[in-house]
Amino acid sequence: DTGVSQDPRHKITKRGQNVTFRCDPISEHNRLYWYRQTLGQGPEFLTYFQNEAQLEKSRLLSDRFSAERPKGSFSTLEIQRTEQGDSAMYLCASSLARDRGNEQFFGPGTRLTVL
Amino acid sequence: AQSVTQPDIHITVSEGASLELRCNYSYGATPYLFWYVQSPGQGLQLLLKYFSGDTLVQGIKGFEAEFKRSQSSFNLRKPSVHWSDAAEYFCAVGAGGYQKVTFGTGTKLQVIP
């Protein structure tokens, strides 16, 4: 499968624990995005990378959230000291900068449940 | 900042009937517009996109959408709905140098026999 992959698909954790999610984009894509989707809502933008540089972070991304994309390939999203309000689906997408239409290809998401 | 409104939270149609899902956007310049579909347990799949040219855009699975600048709308249509079309549909607008995408809240489509 050459699409965007995310790991794990599901994560259940207790409040206060740290969690880390991984996203592997389509191999030639240099843009990578993280979104969060809660029940009944559309995905909300969290952050964006072009290659290894994190170029924008949403105000939704509190200081408990950190994202990295070392070497411009896979990306990780870490949430420290999780809260129940962090329960959501975390989606990763990738795209090719030279694609004028910037079609973003989405992964299946990681569903986080904070107890 | 851009925004998207999908006024219908749920829509129910009979199989074989036509479908129109509404989308209104707000953005100062010419937007990039998208429709995505999300089935349970699946990722978002792009149905179609508009960024210039012909205002009637054809997509996958028999869907089409029409960009109307005067109405700030980008409604999705399908002439004959199939049971497999039951899913949630998201309209989105992209803007900026890297096309930050803002999604609407989605319309859940139910298809009845």
What does this structure look like?
The complex is a heterodimer of chains A (115) and B (113). Chain A has no helices and 11 strands. Chain A is mainly β. In chain A, the strands form 2 sheets. In chain A, strands 2, 4, 5, 6, 9, 10 and 11 form a 7-stranded mixed β-sheet that branches. A 4-stranded antiparallel β-sheet of chain A has the order 1-3-8-7, with no helix packed on it. The model of chain A has no long low-confidence stretch (mean pLDDT 92). With 113 residues, chain B is mostly beta strands. The A-B interface holds A 3-4, 31, 33, 35, 40-45, 48, 50, 55-56, 91, 93, 95, 97, 100-109 and B 4, 32, 34, 36, 41-46, 49, 51, 90, 92, 94, 98-106.
- How many beta-strand runs of chain A? 11
Shape of chain B: globular
Q: Show unreliable segments of chain A.
A: none
Helicity of chain B, as a percent range = under 10%
The quaternary organization reads as heterodimer
SSE string of chain B: EEEEEEEEEEEE
Structural class of chain A: mainly beta
Distance between the termini of chain B: 41 Å
- Roughly what is the average pLDDT of chain B, rounded to an integer? 92
SSE arrangement of chain A, N to C = EEEEEEEEEEE
- The residue ranges of chain B in which pLDDT falls below 50 over 5 or more consecutive positions are none
> What distance separates the N and C termini of chain A?
33 Å
> What is the overall number of helices of chain A?
0
Percent range of helical residues of chain A: under 10%
Taking all Cα atoms into account, the compactness measure Rg of chain A is 13 Å
Features:
heterodimer; A: 115 residues; mainly beta; four-stranded antiparallel beta sheet; B: 113 residues; six-stranded mixed beta sheet; 54% strand; globular
How are the elements arranged and paired?
The complex is a heterodimer of chains A (115) and B (113).
Chain A lengths: L4 E3 L2 E4 L5 E6 L6 E7 L6 E7 L2 E5 L7 E4 L6 E5 L8 E8 L9 E2 L3 E5 L1
Parallel strand pairs in A: 2-11
Antiparallel strand pairs in A: 1-3, 3-8, 4-5, 4-9, 5-6, 7-8, 9-10, 9-11
Chain B lengths: L2 E3 L4 E5 L4 E3 L2 E3 L5 E7 L5 E7 L5 E3 L5 E5 L4 E6 L8 E9 L4 E4 L3 E6 L1
Parallel strand pairs in B: 2-12
Antiparallel strand pairs in B: 1-4, 3-9, 5-6, 5-10, 7-8, 8-9, 10-11, 10-12
